[in-house]
From TrEMBL:
Domain CoA-binding: 9-103
SMART domains: CoA_binding
InterPro entries recorded: CoA-bd (IPR003781), NAD(P)-bd_dom_sf (IPR036291)
Protein name: CoA-binding protein
Naturally occurring in which organism (per UniProt): Fuscibacter oryzae
TM helices/strands, residue ranges: none
């Protein structure tokens, strides 16, 4: 995606499910989710081991199926696990998937695009938002 497309996406989305969210403050998923929350996004943490607990003013969900429709799914999982998350994002009607730094799955990205989702891969919104001046 171009910078303009990323900026457009980040200004349109309101609700973001963060798959792989961690309660540990030193983990990137924790910091990025908190950053997005501070920026005014509605962030829904997803982590089966933390389901039912509270974080960022939300109940942590076990899976995307427990979340319902969201604008974007931010994926903090290994590349080999990203495809299953992308398939779940498609199933719940997400509008976009964002694979974090180091997360690359071209086949899953293509499935998402064919389903009409916007795809960002190997980037971080907490880096892109300030870089793009959003």
């Amino acid at each position: 995606m171009t910078d303009a497309e990323i900026a457009s996406l980040l200004t349109r989305v309101k609700t973001i499910a963060v798959v792989g969210w961690s309660p540990k403050a030193d983990r990137p998923s924790h910091g990025v989710a908190a950053f997005l929350h501070r920026r005014g996004y509605h962030v829904i943490p997803v982590n089966p081991g933390q389901a039912g607990k509270q974080a960022l003013g939300e109940t942590v969900r076990a899976s995307l199926a427990d979340v319902g429709p969201v604008d974007m799914v931010d994926i903090f999982r290994r590349s080999e696990e990203a495809g299953a998350v992308v398939d779940q994002a498609i199933a719940i009607g997400a509008k976009a998937v964002w694979m974090q730094l180091g997360v690359i799955d071209e086949a899953a990205a293509e499935r998402a695009r064919k389903a009409g989702l916007k795809v960002v891969m190997n980037r971080c919104p907490a880096i892109e938002i300030p870089r793009l001046g959003l």
